[in-house]
Structures are given as C-alpha cells and as structure tokens.
Amino acid sequence: MAISQDEVRKVSLLGRLLISEEELGKLTAEMGRILEYMDLLSEVDTEGIDPMAHALEVSDCFRADEARPGLSRQQHLAN
Predict the structure, then answer these.
(1) Is 12 exposed, middle or buried (0-12, 13-18, 19+ CB in 10 A)?
(2) What distance lies between CA 61 and its chain's CA centroid?
(3) Which terminus of the chain has a smaller tally of CB atoms within 10 A, N or C?
(4) What is the pLDDT of residues 34-71, one digit of tens each?
(5) Is the pTM of this model over 0.70?
(6) How far apart are CA 30 and CA 13, in angstroms?
C-alpha cells in the first residue's frame, strides 16, 4: 500500500510533530514499507485461531482476597 506525502503530513500534524521536507521523504518511504508489511501479514490464514489479549499465558499473581480480623478500636485510637 502506498502512502502519499500529504498523508504523512496529516499524520505528523495529528501527532503534533514538526518534520522538515527532508524528513518527509524519508518518513514517507519508511511508512510505505511498514504498510507493505502489514499487507503481507493480512495474507496469513487465521481461520480457527482464537483471538488473544496477550502472547503468553498470564495468570493472576495476587493472593486470594480473604477477610482477616482487623484492629480493635483501642489499637486504632492508640495511634
């Protein structure tokens, strides 16, 4: 997918980036290569693959939330 310099200017404006004309040409080429790679990834067959939120299995690392006795009124007021 090709991207024009006008589109790169618009993206830089949205990102509040000030780019020179020299950088504009370089960024246009780089963004074009990134979009070509994204097109390549869209060709991968993902039929039957469940979406995931994280690449690795993640488990809850917090302890169980169990009620415990608190401090007495006297202990609170002793502070």
Answers:
(1) middle
(2) 22
(3) C
(4) 999 999 988 889 898 888 888 888 777 788 888 989 89
(5) no
(6) 17
